[in-house]
Amino acid sequence: MSYKYILLIAGLLLSGFTRTYAAVGDEDWRERATHLIYSPRYFGPNALPIPTLHSASVSNRWEVEFRGEYHHYTGDKTKNWYGRLYIPLVNNRVAVEVTCTYETEYTLTPETRDERFAAGLKNFDQILGDVTIGTHYQILRSEKWLDIVGRMYIRTATGQRLAEARFTDAAGYWFDLTFGKTIAKNKSGTASLRLHGMAGFYCWMTNSMVHRQDDAYTYGIGVTGKYRNLSIQTDYAGYTGYENNGDRPRVLRTNLSYELKKNILSFKYSHGMRDNLYDSYSLGYIRCF
To answer: N or C end of the chain: which has fewer CB within 10 A?
Structure first.
């Protein structure tokens, strides 16, 4: 038998072995994916975020925000970029907000990987997160009573790395009402204290054949103090899911910001509780127009 035929047979055998090996690998991945738990406790820190607390006042200026974030707990350390675009459509009445995350690095412990049924311990390239698109509508603006804003968000399925339990690769949405009232301010308007709250509904798709989606109610309460160009906001927020499978995260957040000529620098710290396992730090820049 000539070398030509020997090489041909060897190539065919190698090709068949490669296809068989890949098929087995695919079956293993699919089997692991069926065990993923679609809740914030068993996914990365950006997969199913807790909605932010709004001041209940629709702004009439554009905002472009870039933020570097670091999330950590004993089983997962994650770094990502966060971007936000805020567009007023009707002066002080209607606005649109678009956000996205871009994870640059994460590292899991073997215990966390196994708990999440994730495919790996660290990323091999950057990971595009989910894009969220929201609308804000000023329902009521009253100094005597309350300011009320209605919000509706949809989360697209653009997030990557389902196998690594980073993003769910499934759509979701939430809507809520945010309430706000300024309870104290000086005559010059350079100092103020404002209370605000949130209540709404949160829903995301799952991989369960019994419950195709998880439903939750959202809530939050907070206070914002301002003095000249400096402001600090503290709030407590979370949501409570129907499944009770790690879908009841809580967070205590603090945001310190300073504005100068439509440029805002801000530092955020978030302390996760219950099914939110992470402490998070971020530094951001906002340009207003």
So the answer is: N
Task: Give, for 236, the enclosing helix (H) or strand (E).
Answer: strand 230-241
Q: How far is CA 104 from the centre of its chain?
A: 15
pLDDT in tens, 67-114: 999 999 999 999 999 999 999 999 899 999 999 999 999 999 999 999
Token readout for 281 is: 């730090």
Helix (H) or strand (E) holding 26: helix 3-33
Q: Look up the pTM and report it.
A: 0.87
Under 8 Å between Cβ of 19 and 140: no
Residues in the chain: 289
Decide: 174 and 153 in contact? Cβ < 8 Å. yes
| Amino acid present at 59 | S
Chain centroid, CA 156 distance in Å: 12
Query: Measured between alpha carbons, how far is 159 from 103 in angstroms, rounded to an integer?
Result: 10
Is 136 in contact with 94 (CB distance < 8 Å)?
yes
**Per the structure block, which two tokens stand in for 122?**
């660290």
Strands (E) located in 74-212: 76-90, 94-108, 127-140, 147-155, 172-185, 191-205
State the CB neighbour count (10 A cutoff) for residue 20.
10
Which of 176, 241, 165 lies closest to 203, judged by CA?
A: 241
Residues 220 and 198 sit within 8 Å (Cβ to Cβ): yes
